[in-house]
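Hello Y.,

Per our agreement to keep a running log of every chain we model this quarter, I'm adding this entry. I've kept the format consistent with earlier entries: sequence first, then predicted structure.
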Amino acid sequence: MKYALIGCGRISPNHIEAAKNNKLDFAAMCDIKPEIMQEQADKFGLENVKQYIDYKELLEKEQPQLVAIATESGKHAAIALDCIAAGCNVIIEKPIALSIADADAIIRAGKEKGVVVCANHQNRFNKSIQYIRKALEEGRFGKLSHGAAHVRWNRGKEYYEQALWRGTWAQDGGCLMNQCIHNIDLLRWMMGDEVEEVMAYTDQIEHPYLEAEDLGIALVKFKNGSYGLIEGTTNVYPKNLEETLYLFGEKGTAKAAGTSDNIIEEWCFADGADQPEEVKTEFSENPPNVYGFGHTPLYADVIDAIQNHRPPMVDGEAGKRALELVLAIYKSAAERRPINLPLDGCSTMDFAGRFQEITL
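Predicted structure for the entry above:
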């Protein structure tokens, strides 16, 4: 399967490794900064992979079957729509877009062209998360009471200076949209997907040089009667502390922890169907960074979906749901009121100017 990568920045090594692990025909890569592209080519031995600085030229000349889009967030939608128009299946890094309208356009275009659209929420493929999901689908939790998603990370000025689009409303959003959206996706997925209402606060406390938030706290009411708590920040001193997901039900409790939900830290169920210590050992991983090991199985699922004409496990609608919940949090915080879902016509740009803006 002919493959191309658009965007060769911070997350690109995970895509490159996933493509190689799945034995894709890696035909081309693209970045507007040739030196960054060459750096990845040298690192991963991609001397036979063609390099482009114009993704439209890549699409025209290479005609790939599968394209991964790993550029700055604000460009995801436009590039995805061009790829889909060219007949390419797409893997879109999170978030799928920065507006509901763009997410809808991507989903609609994918259906019209008959191509696979995957939102790159790779943490769904963590061994820990897969086992928790299995227990949920088997009904082992009983009635869910509530869940909680915490992302307690650190990002300093150096991180934002590496790419000036970070922390801007036009190209990114704040910590909730960038660092926390994976865990927000997991919480919504686990708690039944359907959200009734969101109440939230966001603030900018330690990053006055950004446009967007560095702290977000939200309460989510799901339509099945359960509740969710979200805490996301890049203010933790002095480095990343944890990313955790809790699920509490009438008959079970689970906690995924570690830097990105890769470890099962709590496992207690009334049915006694498995041994907690064995579960913690078998379904925990220790990845080298917060991106985990999920890209390779996500790619494998997308390849299978293309070959068997089925939706991928994490489709465009899933990407839209994660985006929608973050935007609902932004809207609630900005308007200081509860927000009902579904959202209509919301974008990160609706919140431009909310916090003090200082240019780096």
